Amino acid sequence: MEDPNKLQRKMSTAGESLYKTLGLDKGASQDAIKKSYRKLALRHHPDKNPDNPEAAEKFKEINNANSILSDENKRKIYDEYGSMGLYVAEQFGEDSVKYYFLMSKCWFKTLVVCCGIFTCCCCFCCCCFCCGKGKTSENDDNVAYMDPEDLEAEIREQDAGENAPIVMQPHATSGAS
Asked: What pLDDT, on the 0 to 100 scale, is given for residue 135?
């Protein structure tokens, strides 16, 4: 079982946990982040606290917070979408984060279901050609069938040279203008 005293972190959009780790407010500048990181990293470095395993864990958290908050793209994602946004960026790429959260919204899911119901089709095309519902009815008797032996005979005739392609250009006669 988990330790009930252990701090649980939510995947919030508030962005407080990384800023709190560095002891900063949400709108902190890059200089303030760097200054706070250096101060806390020196205090909790595992080499300065060899007997304290909590210091090593705190040092890892400080490094993680600094790496995210010092990168402008990751910081923007974290500020807007929280820890879950960082996870999605890691899995699908930074450009896909906004689309992931767009498709996770209730109104988007409802829109997809309604389009599927109204078009009676899985890809929302009204013609339903992809599902075969709008396919034109053709009789299977009208399909031209060629006997394989006839096809082979035709190929042999072409190979024999009866229908050989023209390989030379025609020449103009001297009397023609």
From this structure: 59
